[in-house]
Amino acid sequence: MKIFTRLLESAKNNGGGYFVLIDPDTRKGDELKAFVREICDRGVDAILVGGSLIIDSDFQAAVQLIKEVSSIPVILFPGSVAQINSNADAVLFLSLISGRNPNCLFGEHVIAAPTIRKLGIEPIATGYMLFESGRTTTAEFMSNTRPLPVNKPEIAMAHALAAQYLGMSTIYLEAGSGAEHSVPDAIVKAVSRYIEIPVITGGGIRTPEDARAKIESGSTFVVTGNIYDDPTKFGLLSEFVRAAHPKQFT
Ligand code: 1GP
């Protein structure tokens, strides 16, 4: 069974799912391995690896190390074609549909597709929508696109529906890593109700309560990333797992 289908099945049983995004710039070697073990032991559904801008890590080696230790799917969340490699199980094949930068909409994909085919990793066609979130995020700056307004749900709904009609497998509602504000629940609700494909929500989610609110608003998966830059926050992993699995933990 395909990885994304499996994740959807478990999200159906648990009432939702939780992904942790690892930016390999933040930790390496044994520290990275220990973090991955912690993630898997606490019941997280999948690991995303990547970032809009990765500066000083050997990205391929980091993904390999994560994969060696991980007992859950490792999915690339690539900021560029350079991050595609064979050490992962799948890749979010992201089209930045909220923007009108042709490279992010389709250009990079043409370059990446033959490599993904050759490597045999599973592409998950993802309509990626970036929202205003209080300050300029790396994703916004690096993609050179304007984020969607958060006070106009109808614009977000139309974008998501167009992605569904184009055959995409999922929509990623993104506030940007480290965003001041996560994507508003009202947007998550409006989009999730309007489309039939599953929604992933991430960026600026710092509390289990906020994660639960996204799930209750209709998001199938929630993602957190940089809260775990601080190792004293590892205890939150179980709390996020509980928050994102309402049928498992009521
Ligand atoms: C970014 O959604 C992820 O794409 C995670 O964001 O680092 O703000 O949790 P944070």
Tell me what you see in this structure.
The chain is α/β, with parallel strands linked by helices and 250 residues long. Helices cover 40% and strands 17% of the residues. Strands 1-2-3-4-5-6-7-8 form an 8-stranded parallel barrel, surrounded by 8 helices. It is globular, with a radius of gyration of 16 Å. The model has no long low-confidence stretch (mean pLDDT 95). The site of SN-glycerol-1-phosphate has 14 residues, from strand 8.
Strand order of the largest sheet: 1-2-3-4-5-6-7-8
Sheet-strand content, in percent, reads 15-25%
Task: Find the CATH topology.
Answer: TIM Barrel
Domain module count: 1
Taken from the alpha-carbon principal axes, the silhouette is globular
Name given to the CATH homologous superfamily: FMN-linked oxidoreductases
Question: How many H/I helical runs?
Answer: 9
Order of helices and strands: HEHEHEEHEHHEHEHEH
Low-pLDDT stretches are: none
Overall pLDDT: 95
Q: How many E strands? A: 8
Round the Cα radius of gyration to an integer and report it.
16 Å
- Termini gap: 29 Å
List its salient traits.
250 residues, alpha/beta, TIM Barrel, 8-stranded parallel β-barrel, 9 helices, 40% helix, binds SN-glycerol-1-phosphate
